[in-house]
Design brief:
The chain is an alpha/beta fold and about 650 residues long.
Length: about 650
């Protein structure tokens, strides 16, 4: 049992006391889209019920010139905000609202030019903004103050001013985006003037008992905002008595991979840019950076590197993280694997937040472990397949009281996840498999490994319900989506392998050169290429997609991959299809339909890795159809997709059998 020395202790921020040292930093959810809805309140309430000390609600738009997911400048938001505060307080959780204006970083709702310090476009949208007049500046500063006043009136405990990530306050502060020649531009003091006046207005609009803090952090841009810039600013704010705490972050839309670091980043990856500030200010300090366990949080505080530690994705994955850990059940916490496939990627596409490992996240009103009910009658449930879909189905069915038997053809559980976790920087994928495996054994599921069954074998068991989660297999026939009638020839040659072959059964001799042909566009091809490079090969990645790995960039892990490839023997060719695999080479050509073989190129290749859409393994399901009344098909066995789909479908099957 873990013994905590710091993270479980209360702390004072301004004139309030927070019950422990954990907080949920502000993060986009896409749930309310402008309003504090019941769904959004319930999402936060599950984390408050789970023991988090402080919740900072997502960016709240203070002015109509910058609307987004929570438009707190609108008076009609009052009822929702009051309910939000009340519901968090029931669980002893303090609640702050983040105050935000995007400036040039987001488009306006009416498509008018965004407002900013100068006419410098932000990389996020590339629209030339309107340089703000003194009247516009005063109007926005007044809006910040008015929204802070309202948040106190509505019963919240404080506000968190977003002064980082390249939003409007940072646009005034940064010499890269502020080219003004008036009192708001030029010198450090002038560039800091907008933030200082804003914080003075906010502090003057609320009582001394209402907490006011600011989020800061270097933007990691050349000639941008350094750690020293933000330390000097923090000292100015602290010296003027304008802040009760400082909340550290890092990155900007030029480096958004650092704003929400993926599994390629270690726990605490933001500390090197946070510690120079946390060690040199007097007010309490808050940090974040892919922390996953309460022990990690305790270690940071114990080392004197911060006073509170943020847990966002970790509590998306398991809302009960804090409560379980404090109760001595840290091993029961569902791990965040930092895949960013449903939390971050959904936000990139304007979709409500979800979680690859927690089917209930973002859907707390309709599904989740907190809504599971014991089965009216315990039934005999058979699950075929021990990948993530099958494991989740077995876990949830057992939680509800069913007698569950899980049959897996292989000698280990985990399915395709075991191969995926072999890819460079992807090892933490196995954490969710390990957790699921431990849970099904803890719950008494009868796990039968190395057990291949057909439909008649299943029927002989006389089950009440069957969940088929037999997964998918590699498609090695050379079919490409761009040219379905022109499969790659030569796919049966020696040296042509799948990514599973590469990761799980790496051939003894790979040669000197390799070509990875990617018809999918996810991390599988990138992982294959990096694996091969680490084996000493020169690699060319070929894809008919319009860009390299289009399903990876929303997870914010494409740029880190390209950074790792700098100076390595790697190149890629997009809008390019495979034509033929021959001895020691691959013939490729343009993927657009008008291209001819005369446009082809020859690439050296001792090894060829085919990454293509897999094929369902559904023989057992087809054999049981119309022979079992309660029959479910889940995960890749239904259609090869992604982890979040497998977990969701496994959960729903286990919740309904």
């Amino acid at each position: 049992m873990v013994s905590y020395t710091h993270v479980d202790k209360p702390i004072r921020l301004g004139n309030i006391e927070v019950k422990n040292r954990t907080f949920r930093p502000a993060h986009g959810t896409g749930i309310g889209w402008g309003a504090m809805t019941e769904a959004l309140i319930t999402y936060h309430e599950e984390r408050a019920r789970g023991g988090v000390g402080l919740i900072i609600s997502e960016i709240g738009s203070v002015h109509p010139s910058s609307q987004h997911t929570l438009n707190i400048y609108k008076p009609e938001i009052e009822d929702g905000m009051r309910a939000f505060a009340d519901r968090m307080h029931v669980h002893g959780t303090k609640v702050f609202q983040q105050l935000w204006h995007a400036g040039a970083a987001f488009p306006t709702h009416d498509r008018s030019p965004p407002w900013s310090a100068s006419d410098i476009p932000n990389v996020a949208i590339g629209i030339v903004p309107t340089p703000m007049t003194k009247g516009m500046i005063d109007e926005v500063i007044g809006a910040y103050a008015e929204c802070a006043r309202r948040m106190e009136q509505y019963g919240l405990d404080g506000v968190d001013i977003h002064g980082a990530h390249g939003y409007l306050p940072a646009q005034f502060f940064s010499p890269n985006s502020n080219k003004r020649e008036d009192e708001y531009g030029g010198s450090f003091e002038n560039r800091a003037r907008f933030i200082m006046e804003m914080m003075q207005a906010i502090r003057g609009a609320v009582s001394k008992d209402f907490v006011v803090g600011i989020r800061v952090g270097t933007d990691l841009i050349e000639n941008g905002l350094s750690i020293d810039d933000y330390l000097k600013l923090t000292h100015m704010l602290e010296g003027a008595g304008l802040i009760d705490y400082v909340n550290l972050s890092v990155g900007s839309y030029n480096r958004n991979d650092k704003m929400i670091g993926g599994m390629n980043e270690p726990a605490g990856y933001e500390l090197p840019t946070s510690i120079p500030i946390t060690h040199n200010v007097k007010v309490p300090t808050l940090v974040t950076g892919r922390f996953r366990t309460l022990e990690e949080c305790d270690q940071v505080i114990r080392a004197g590197d911060a006073d509170m530690v943020g847990l966002v994705r970790a509590t998306i994955a398991d809302p009960q993280l804090v409560a379980k850990s404090l109760a001595g059940q840290a091993d029961r916490v569902r791990p965040c694997i930092a895949c960013n496939q449903s939390c971050t990627a959904n936000q990139m596409f304007g979709l409500p937040i979800e979680c690859a490992v927690n089917a209930g996240a973002g859907h707390e009103l309709e599904r989740g472990e907190h809504l599971l009910q014991p089965a009216p009658v315990a039934r005999k449930v058979v699950v075929i397949g021990g990948g993530p879909a099958g494991l989740e189905a077995a876990r949830v069915a057992a939680l509800r009281g069913h007698a569950v038997t899980l049959m897996e053809a292989n000698s280990q559980l985990g399915g395709a996840m075991r191969a995926a976790a072999k890819a460079p920087t992807r090892h933490q994928l196995i954490d969710i498999v390990t957790w699921l495996e431990e849970e099904v054994y803890r719950l008494g599921v009868d796990v039968q490994l190395s057990t291949y069954v057909d439909a008649d074998d299943v029927l002989a068991i006389r089950p009440d319900a069957v969940i088929v989660a037999t997964g998918a297999m590699e498609r090695m026939d050379g079919m490409q989506i761009s040219h379905p009638g022109e499969p790659i020839s030569g796919v049966d040659r020696k040296g042509v392998i799948s990514s599973t072959d590469l990761f799980m059964m790496t051939p003894a001799s790979l040669g000197r050169t390799a070509v990875v042909i990617d018809d999918v566009g996810h991390h599988e091809a990138l992982g294959s290429a990096e694996f091969l490079i680490n084996q000493g090969l020169e690699v060319t990645l070929v894809t008919p997609k319009r860009e390299l790995s289009p399903h990876v960039w929303p997870t914010l892990m494409l740029d880190p991959f390209l950074q790792r490839m700098q100076g390595k023997p790697f190149r890629y060719m997009d809008r390019t299809r495979g034509i033929a695999i021959e001895e020691g080479r691959v013939v490729v050509g343009p993927a657009h339909l008008q291209a001819t073989l005369q446009d082809s190129t020859v690439l050296e290749a001792d090894t060829v890795v085919l990454v293509s859409s897999n094929r369902q393994i559904r023989d057992v399901f087809d054999g049981l159809r119309d022979r079992v009344a309660d029959l479910h098909l889940v995960g890749d066995a239904g259609s090869p997709r992604y982890l979040q789909t497998a977990i969701r479908e496994g959960f729903l099957a286990g919740a309904t059998v």
